[in-house]
């Protein structure tokens, strides 16, 4: 997509770069440790896949010794995704859209990533 068009639709707080297989958008949304949430665009036929490429779950798993979520946490992830109309497939937050709805899709995926990353607060601190 055109860089100027993306800047006009998303605003100056979003930075946009083209990579080999996808286009990366760095959003003003943050993980709890202060890192920016990145969203990636991949063009598939006439649709655009907007996804976090699993970065949110990787960040979440890095906050715990366990590499799995409880059934309650999995339910919370599903609820967050359903609320914002995005999918959660194999650890990837994603949605498909057409070119006229890219800005909305980027916002939704970034917001879901932010809300899912806040689930680290539900991890129990175990004292020895």
Topology overview:
Elements: H1 3-10, E1 15-18, E2 23-30, E3 36-44, E4 47-51, H2 55-61, H3 71-84, E5 87-89, E6 92-97, H4 102-117
Antiparallel strand pairs: 1-2, 2-3, 3-4, 4-6, 5-6
Would you write up a description of this structure?
The structure is a single chain. The chain is of the alpha+beta class and 128 residues long. It is 35% helix and 27% strand. It is built from four helices and six strands; from the N terminus they run H-E-E-E-E-H-H-E-E-H. The chain has helices at 3-10, 55-61, 71-84, 102-117, and strands at 15-18, 23-30, 36-44, 47-51, 87-89, 92-97. Strands 1-2-3-4-6-5 form a six-stranded antiparallel beta sheet. Strand 1 and strand 2 (23-30) form a beta hairpin. The protein starts with a helix and ends in an 11-residue tail after the last helix.
